[in-house]
Amino acid sequence: MNISFANALGLHEQALGLRARRAELLANNLANADTPNYQARDLDFSEALKRQVSGGGSATELTARITHHLHIPTGGQQVGDAHLKFRVPMQAAIDGNSVDADAEQARYAENSLRFQSSFTLLNNQFKGLLAAIRGE
Q1: Report field, pTM of the whole predicted structure over 0.85
Q2: Flagellar basal body rod protein N-terminal domain spans which residues (predicted)?
């Protein structure tokens, strides 16, 4: 009997990847909190997860089509900017920076908690599969 990991693991595998990508974005925002004219970016998690589940491709990958025989195949390019959204600041900074460090830290902490819960659920799924394989 074959085990389909996609069916057994559910959305948690995809959610972990998206949560990791969002953590990178939020950390980048925090690192650039003092950079003039830096615009804070974020990933709409629910929209990106819907896109991945519906088969619309990865939320962080942009693929190019080869339309001419002299084009170089890319195999996908890790850009992610196509689906990122800029954050609108509550109060504009004089230097044009839109990062609110306190709000970004709160978002980062929330994202970390959600990452950990998805990881725990995924880990429990693996434990259940291992118990089923062992016949326990």
Answers
A1: no
A2: 12-39
